[in-house]
Design goal:
Blueprint: H1 3-15, H2 25-34, H3 47-53, H4 63-82, H5 89-108, H6 135-150, H7 155-185, E1 194-201, E2 208-215, E3 218-225, E4 230-231, E5 235-238, H8 244-250, H9 253-261, E6 265-271, E7 275-282, E8 292-301, E9 306-316
Antiparallel strand pairs: 1-2, 2-3, 3-4, 3-5, 6-7, 7-8, 8-9
């Protein structure tokens, strides 16, 4: 999820009663709710390195308690120096752990996914319920925070109501997702070579979902409207059969990262005078209207040696 959502959830949690446990509980909760995203620093190494590490070990069930303990130690030092009341490390740790645990849960809710069992397993898990940026959820949380400041004597009640409303909203989105899944499932039983399908949320409309269907020959997308059940004709992207050219492209660092990250991948090969251009595209993030999306571009010479490789979320993919 976007960091505004993480921060607002952390602040609401602190106001719901955690602020009774220790000084600077609000700061602790807000920092904790965002701290797993310290891996965003890997973006300095380029998109491939970012995808390789983002939502990785810092979002895992092993790292969350460790990061919480580190933050708790820091906040205890600060509160011991500046706070009027000294409390034990356990209270700071409790605040940090509860707030930080919401981070991978919220990230799981969207279609980017998380890898909670690193370093033992690098499998991605997806909730496909919320878009990465959800303005409606942010609005619910923000209104609750503002109400807590406006009516300070009822701040705790306001925080409880806010968290309940947020959970109800997520629950409603989950139900809409399940309805969309059922509508898509009605279209897939007789598809030749069917492999898997999924429905992904859209940013501004909880009632519109993008359906993905992967077969042995192509990946098809469709727009699903719920609860009405309207499903548009599928737009298919044919895949390119495996070849030594594609294998050489996938053996690069960008190719390996793409293979580990992509959920609905397709490959395009363009023959050049000097060799080949290979596109590895994750249809999940492809914007057909403008022809851009997450893609790795690998240039090979005629001997299949790598001349260059790159990856971007805004790559121009003219071959789709």
């Amino acid at each position: 999820m976007f960091n505004s959502t993480h921060a607002l959830v952390g602040f609401a949690l602190s106001r719901s009663g955690l602020d009774r446990l220790a000084p600077y509980a609000g700061w602790t909760a807000v920092i904790a709710s965002n701290l797993p995203d310290i891996d965003i620093a890997t973006q300095l190494g380029g998109t491939a390195r970012y995808l390789d590490h983002h939502r990785g070990i810092t979002h895992s069930i092993i790292a969350i308690p460790v990061l919480s303990l580190i933050l708790a130690i820091v906040m205890q030092r600060i509160s011991d120096k500046w706070g009027q009341v000294r409390v034990g490390l356990l209270r700071h740790f409790t605040i940090a752990l509860l707030a930080m645990a919401t981070h991978p849960l919220l990230d799981f809710a969207n279609n980017y996914g998380v890898r909670p069992f690193l370093p033992f397993s690098d499998t991605w898990y997806y909730g496909d319920t919320l878009f990465i940026i959800d303005p409606y959820l942010d609005l619910i949380l923000l209104v609750g925070v503002v109400a807590g400041f406006r009516w300070r004597h009822h701040a705790r009640i306001s925080a409880h109501i806010t968290l309940v409303l947020a959970l109800l909203y997520v629950g409603a989105r989950l139900e809409l997702r399940n309805i969309a899944i059922s509508h898509l499932a009605n279209r897939t039983p007789n598809m030749s070579g069917f492999i898997r399908s999924a429905v992904l949320p859209q940013m501004l409309s909880p009632f519109k979902w993008t359906g993905f269907v992967e077969t042995q020959e192509q990946i098809a997308t469709t727009l699903i409207e719920v609860p009405g059940g309207s499903v548009t004709p599928m737009n298919g992207f044919r895949n390119t059969p495996e070849s030594p050219i594609i294998a050489a492209a996938k053996s690069t660092y960008s190719g390996r990262v793409f293979e580990g990250f992509a959920r609905f991948p397709i490959v395009r090969v363009q023959e050049l005078d000097s060799g080949y251009r290979v596109w590895l595209v994750d249809v999940r993030f492809f914007r057909a209207g403008i022809g851009t999306g997450l893609a790795a571009e690998i240039l090979l010479d005629r001997s299949l040696n790598v001349e260059s490789e790159s990856m971007s979320f805004v790559a121009n993919v003219p071959l789709l």
